[in-house]
Design goal:
The chain is mainly alpha-helical. 77% of the residues lie in helices and 0% in strands. The protein is built from 5 helices and no strands.
């Protein structure tokens, strides 16, 4: 029984690595900045630094690059979730009870975004102290995207 479990675990790990390699190879052939349309209702454009963060195998390190990658992952996650909630809010605008659920979610996401902006600002300062200007710039770019989406969310809720 133990052998079957180990074989299954090794097989799953190998398939996971193969699928990751296939996806990376597919996107490596694409031109820089080229868009990939996954769904018709959701558009999320990632920067190169954000993409690299999703592919990073060093997230557990206690380093500036790992801290930057973790910050970028959080920023993209909140941005994506906020985008989804805004789309749902628009789609269900005439249903008061469902609209309220999505509006409440957006309010919580705005608070998370505010806290994340504070954490990201500290990470930017740390990066600048350690001559990691490229890391600071990557976080600033992602943070600006989140700020713009947050402004859109506030405007949508006030409308």
């Amino acid at each position: 029984m133990l052998t079957r479990g180990l074989v299954t675990a090794v097989l799953v790990a190998a398939l996971d690595q193969l699928s990751k390699a296939a996806i990376l190879a597919y996107f490596a052939r694409r031109a820089l900045g080229e868009h990939e349309v996954v769904t018709s209702f959701f558009n999320l454009t990632l920067t190169l630094a954000e993409v690299e963060s999703y592919c990073a195998d060093y997230l557990e390190e206690k380093s500036l690059r790992a801290g930057t990658a973790r910050a970028l992952l959080r920023l993209v996650a909140v941005l994506a979730r906020m985008t989804t909630e805004l789309e749902e809010l628009k789609r269900l605008g005439n249903s008061t009870s469902l609209w309220k659920l999505h509006a409440d979610s957006i309010i919580v996401l705005l608070e998370i975004a505010r806290n994340l902006a504070e954490q990201s600002s500290r990470m930017i300062a740390l990066a600048n102290q350690h001559h990691g200007e490229s890391f600071a710039e990557a976080i600033e770019t992602s943070l600006e995207k989140l700020r713009k989406r947050s402004e859109l969310a506030v405007n949508t809720l006030q409308a």
